[in-house]
User: Fold these one by one.
Assistant:
Number 1:
Amino acid sequence: PPATDDRPPGGGVHTPTRAAIRAPHLRTDRWWLAPAATAAGLLAFVVYSTWRAFANADYYAAPYVSPFYSPCLAENCEPMRSGPNWELFGTWWGISPAIIILIFPLGFRLTCYYYRKAYYRGFWASPPACAVAEPHKKYTGETRFPLILQNVHRYFFYAALLVAGILSYDTVLAFRDEHYAWGHMGLGTLVFLANIALIWAYTLSCHSCRHIVGGKLRHFSRHPVRYRMWQWVGRLNARHMQLAWASLVSVALADFYVYLVASGAFDDPRFF
Ligand code: FES
């Protein structure tokens, strides 16, 4: 660096080994638009899901159960007595059962590689965008507590497989009517079908899934089945961001649909 370097002190792009550019960044496009839109979208979901998770009501309208409350694990799931639930927690559990359920899908999304990028940029400006320096003085990445815990993502992936399995079961049950006879199809059934397709696509497009399926192999030629599966997962993985958003919206819509029907604001149109 030049001897007359008068850049402000600090780490990252201000270290003496980096080019002596005083401008905070050289981008002239609207680089702030993507992180601002991301933050707004995530915030809207956080507000909606917090309201619904704590509501502890209007989550079951036969034959539909809200994905936020499935499987219902507490005895206080009274309206669901004849629905798909396992009463593992006694009546002492006064808090909304969704709080227990949501730990798993939320943990999966919070530690997801894409969402990490999204909220690091949207909420922490770390960094705000490509080629825009972050305002923080120090950068330790994900090498220290608490961010080092992001490494548990693979385990949340296993839990997410279970969650997707349970939501698939709910979707199959959405083909029954309110008397539990098979052959029903309502608008809710279609909403559930669209949601479960997106949930599976997002879950299987996970980077951890891609590594589990095709990682640690020396020769693809000796593992043709895993190679083929790795190619499929890779194709989905290329759309991971889009699937993350589409499934986030679809799961909120599926819950909202159940809320509308359960609260009596809307009647589920029947096709069969
Ligand atoms: Fe996004 Fe695993 S990397 S879900």
Number 2:
Amino acid sequence: LPCAPLAVLGRDVQVPLASGEKVGYAALDYAASSPALQRVWDDVAAYAPYYGSVHRGAGYLSQLSTDLFEQSRRTVAEFLDLREGDQVVFTRATTDSLNLLAGAVPAGTRVFAFETEHHASLLPWAHAGLEVRYLAAPRSRAEAVAALDAALAEAPEGPKLLCVTGASNVTGELWPVAALTETAHRHGARVVLDAAQLAPHHRVSVRESGVDWIAFSGHKLYAPFGAGVLAGRSDWLDAAEPYLAGGGATRTVARETDGSVAVQWHTGPARHEAGSPNVIGAYAIASACRALTEAGFEALEAREQRLIDRLTAGLAEIPQVKVLNLFGPGSARVGVLSFVVQDWNSSHFSAALSAEYGIGVRDGLFCAHPLVRTLLGDDTPAADSACGAPDASLPGERSLNAIRVSFGAGTPDEHVERFLTA
Ligand code: PMP
């Protein structure tokens, strides 16, 4: 399965080192945002001169844009292997998709989420006023399935929803999505899959995994910022209040004789896409879906696995490095890995990778504070502020944050080798 790295933007960017030399930037922070594929850029550049308003213009370019926008929806549906009757809603990103769904689930729905989730999949449910049962961090995949089974068995009647990640944004570990979904469905619960870290690395099939909804972000799937997807079953989405009130979501709006305004909302994706949509963003996501499908996930996964094996073997030779795994050493992961280095402050370490080697990684708590604290064996809330803000851990003391290295389809072997050398 020969597969060269896919061409991405920024691959020729030179960055200054502390020494004054310049070196090619090694982007090893794909888990935060991946560089866009050159192919996506080319597609968007070819289309940009022609874009016009979507669903609101009679002119040729408006019709063209409307066609391309709707074609992008179909491309995403194919990419995700959706079922008959499923819908694709274009959103701003995963965070937006999950907040949309949180507002759309029927009142009284009880939500289940492992405390190890990214904040985007952990927090929207309670924020929307739903009751949430947080499940403790499992230390194996089997334990995750058993914990969900037990929690659902004792849950009262009524609608239930599990929100689970496909691949952790901290450890990169794969979650047992099919087994969790089977367990949830057996108890009458629905499932939403946070595929922000899974979709860029592995083929996902909604049909085969059985999940009810899936969410991902364009900017982690080699497309630019500003667009994401929520896709899946239509019933709860069509029955819910629209995510935003405004033009495009309405079938009719009429002034009533009593002075009020009566609104009939669309069903289907338009219901939750009020306002002028991000047609460039949707088109870019569809372009990335096509490019990944054409490159072939089998080949992409095989190549990425080779890099993961090289990285984990290289790190295992450095006694001061501790790789963070929730499910134990050697557990299957995508190209995302977090670690700490003995006697090093993680923020200083990451800064040194940048200043001395031109390597861009991330340090912090990665918007998954409970998970990182569990992995570091620390139950005391550290006084960090924003998502992933660096904590001050002093040399020789227990780390309060970690370093994350992450890569994907555009990563050349040299970046991983340079990282291990560093
Ligand atoms: N879920 C996971 C697993 C993520 O890694 C991220 C982004 N780091 C999100 C959700 C949120 O994605 P976004 O910031 O694009 O909304």
Number 3:
Amino acid sequence: MNIIIVKDYEEMSRKAAHLFVAQILNKPNSVLGLATGSTPMGLYKELIRFFNEGMISFQSATAFNLDEYVGLEKEHPQSYWRFMQENFFTKVDLPVERQFIPSGVAEDIAAESYNYDKNITSKGGIDLQVLGIGRNGHIGFNEPDLKFEARTHVVKLDEQTIEDNARFFDDISMVPTLAISMGVKTIMQSRSIILLASGKEKGEAIKKMLSGNITPELPASVLQLHPSVTAIIDLAAASMLD
Ligand code: F6R
């Protein structure tokens, strides 16, 4: 794993954006794996800036998001579909028909999950996947103790994840308890991965991720087995490293 320690959130976002820009310039029809949450918002801002300056185009790219809450309609203010519209998709030229996010309201969620992986494979697989990390070490919504071989599937969110994500909802009781998420196996099949971490609350998870111990109890630890991971970690998130 290539570990880059940076000063702060802004530098993390800039460095991540540079890797995305290089990916798009090298391969305009790249398949990008995208994430939601606070962590990648700065990355999306930087990419929008590069797009507005005419340096890159997403015209030929394809995007697959990691996850979506089960039970939230697309238009729900906290759906990840809505997050991606507001923070990225409506601000760049990535064609609508190549923006993929799993549906949290599919009648048959098992079929939705199966078809999501099939669709990724049919587009040639993910070239570059961006990941945040949960305080409990989750990647996507793969919570501790889920098997590493899981593909896209329905997951029950941990209490801690529900608490963490309650900041986006009016009340903690409104946070969905289930999500549909790419599995660890789906994520590990990406050709390259960028893991981003900012803030001292991620310190413990980062320390465990890099401890050398690979265990489903700390899902991000599996990334130590991937041949092409760049972890961009700010000083606060790296503060527990020796
Ligand atoms: C989001 C996702 C999650 C988040 C993680 C960190 O699509 O899959 O794994 O990356 O929960 O969230 P933030 O960035 O809000 O701290």
